[in-house]
Amino acid sequence: MITKLTSTQSDFQEKLASLLAWDNVSNKEVAQTVDDIIANVRNSGDSALIDYTNKFDGVNASSMKDLTIKLPALKQAFDALNKKQKSALTIAADRIRLYHEKQKQSTWNYTEDDSTMLGQKITPLDHVGLYVPGGKAAYPSSVLMNAIPAKVADVESLIMVVPTPNGISNPLVLAAAYISGITQVFTVGGAQAIAALAYGTKTIPKVDKIVGPGNIYVATAKRAVFGQVGIDMIAGPSEILIICDGKTNPDWIAMDLFSQAEHDEDAQSILLCPDSNFINQVEISIKKLLPTMDRQAIIKIALKERGALIQTQDMNEAITLSNQIAPEHLELSVEDPQILLDNIKHAGAIFMGRHTCESLGDYCAGPNHVLPTSGTARFSSPLGVYDFQKKSSLIMVSRQGANTLGKVAAILADGEGLQAHAQSAKYRISH
Amino acid sequence: MITKLTSTQSDFQEKLASLLAWDNVSNKEVAQTVDDIIANVRNSGDSALIDYTNKFDGVNASSMKDLTIKLPALKQAFDALNKKQKSALTIAADRIRLYHEKQKQSTWNYTEDDSTMLGQKITPLDHVGLYVPGGKAAYPSSVLMNAIPAKVADVESLIMVVPTPNGISNPLVLAAAYISGITQVFTVGGAQAIAALAYGTKTIPKVDKIVGPGNIYVATAKRAVFGQVGIDMIAGPSEILIICDGKTNPDWIAMDLFSQAEHDEDAQSILLCPDSNFINQVEISIKKLLPTMDRQAIIKIALKERGALIQTQDMNEAITLSNQIAPEHLELSVEDPQILLDNIKHAGAIFMGRHTCESLGDYCAGPNHVLPTSGTARFSSPLGVYDFQKKSSLIMVSRQGANTLGKVAAILADGEGLQAHAQSAKYRISH
């Protein structure tokens, strides 16, 4: 049902490595298809986009008008929600906005004794494209999490693309687009939508950056247009790592493992705990609760293929293993999570204490749920306002500063054999 | 010699687009070679690395020991510099360090009324790989600019790779590595060095991120390993855009254009100025000064193929065009650059005032010289300390907070059909 390991078994590191293994490298056949789609959309614009959409999404569009959702339709979708949903979506959006406002960076500068000024100017991106998957993985929370940081950064326009397979759109997604302040919506998807956003068509504006999750075609297309536009990280399957001291209700831990596993068959749920007896209790809870779950088929495969209950020697070793894994979601289900925090080096988000289950953070605590997966927390960060702002260095050298800096620059430029660099600096030396 | 355009000519936008055109898309043949090299280094580690290095760099290494430079050799290289060079390198390093210290981010958090704590923990990357090109483009300043921000971020280890074609190493590069605090140096390069850093070999440690410039093989390899490790931007040719009011010494402007053009034949130098008479004077200065330049052959091709002197209607239009171009380096050669600054939206670095030539910033003003090229300043930033720090979200929901947030999360999770997410939240609701 789920792999059980102990950190002291001789083949532990090998077993762990094989559990964690996830090759992000894209399939060659997919890459070729995607390259063709991008080339066609670059060449034929809207008409290629319409053809692909009719073909892949089973719709019957004759013009881009048929693939456009006007803004009033978003408001209508929101207004049509029941009161509870409307309130939940609004509370979540407000909390996400509040948290992300703390991430906003500001222009700074300082002036040296000789009046030379140095600094950094912060500006928002102009145009951002937001990819929202259609079908089963169409999550309104994902719209909030991708769009709100961009709005907080003061991005001018936010273009959402969302495929509507067989013409079916998700009212919660449209409602979320409404309260996030999306500026335009097109019902296109796949590599063709990414190509349209990256290069622009007559109807779809060219954007500066594309964010949002998608299937392998979308991910491969994002990788291909990287450089032409900015992109967020290319996400692998979602994962949770729970460190528990053995004193949380085992049903809670089992359900937290399920909440990751229910995403899809590749999702990963791992528990680290020094208490073998508690691990057995969690296993019993898993067996007991699994039959009650709507998505038990998915959960079962995910737990069997990629899940694990791991007995560690102590809590310190659990932290060491967590740093090795660099999990997307790290739950510290312990009495005093603060004392563990200093030693945690790599994690997308850290859920602290028995009452902080991951799903609170997924929806409404405030921090972003777009997080680095597959160990990429070693070098990357949650999606944030900083992904929608950029920096320009400011350098204003005074007449006096040019004397001192000019001499230094000239020596270094000459050392690199760059005479024009040196001469350009020397011109500014006045004595 | 250099293209002259006026913004009012009917084909101006077309001409400008063709000047700016730069396709970053990688060559298929190169991509295949790079894929093979990466696969071989992943499979055979050091031995593949030694074979490729012997073959491509014309050396005769029999073990990785022959491809390792020990730290004392870096200090020796620094000690052997002349006094002026030692001082210039030290001043530059100190100024770069001082500026970058202002970029360092800190952990923050806030506590809500119900004792729920939210925040963001900042940690440095553990291991960073720094690629330094060998041969003609081996720039010590590039070592400072890539390494110092990583050191300021408190990166634990900084692994430098630098090919030594025919066994020749550059003492200035080694000296720069010394004062930057590089922790290990290997004399390997190309796609094989990138593969070794991304996947690790017996001798070369696996890193978390790879930064630094390189040729098309290096750039293609970086793109291929992106996701396995972090990478910095993939740089196109370097460019300068100068906005001048027509009152700077035209020789200065000509030399500033040269200082970009001398990098390589693809480098781009553009002047925007409303004064046609001044543009003619700059053209005369170019003709006069070009024969005095060591690298006149390169400058001549770069100016002819990709350079331009553009007459604008006024300074406002110059700013508008600059925002459209989103230059890597923007020089505001005017009396009062501050009044233009507010309207500048996209630029890697802004050099303000007649005394601030780009080369001061290239070497020693303090800000980074690794900047977004080819219009990518629309969505990306100079290399900085933030590239070597990462963020983890902190979420510690109180018992009371779990009541309110749990209800919101459960409604949204149910709306997305994620029952385990909902149940996990519901468990935490205590009344």
Automatic annotation (TrEMBL), chains A, B:
One of its GO terms (cellular component) is cytosol. Its cofactor is Zn(2+). The active site is at residues 328-329. Its EC number is 1.1.1.23. GO terms for biological process: L-histidine biosynthetic process. Zn(2+) binds at residues 260, 263, 362, 421. Belongs to the histidinol dehydrogenase family. PROSITE patterns: HISOL_DEHYDROGENASE. Keywords: Amino-acid biosynthesis, Histidine biosynthesis, Metal-binding, NAD, Oxidoreductase, Zinc. The keyword Metal-binding applies. GO terms for molecular function: histidinol dehydrogenase activity; NAD binding; zinc ion binding. It catalyses: L-histidinol + 2 NAD(+) + H2O = L-histidine + 2 NADH + 3 H(+). Binds 1 zinc ion per subunit. Pathway: Amino-acid biosynthesis; L-histidine biosynthesis; L-histidine from 5-phospho-alpha-D-ribose 1-diphosphate: step 9/9. Substrate binds at residues 238, 260, 263, 329, 362, 416, 421. Catalyzes the sequential NAD-dependent oxidations of L-histidinol to L-histidinaldehyde and then to L-histidine. Coiled coil: none annotated. NAD(+) binds at residues 131, 192, 215. It is an enzyme of class 1 (oxidoreductase). The keyword Amino-acid biosynthesis applies. This is Histidinol dehydrogenase.
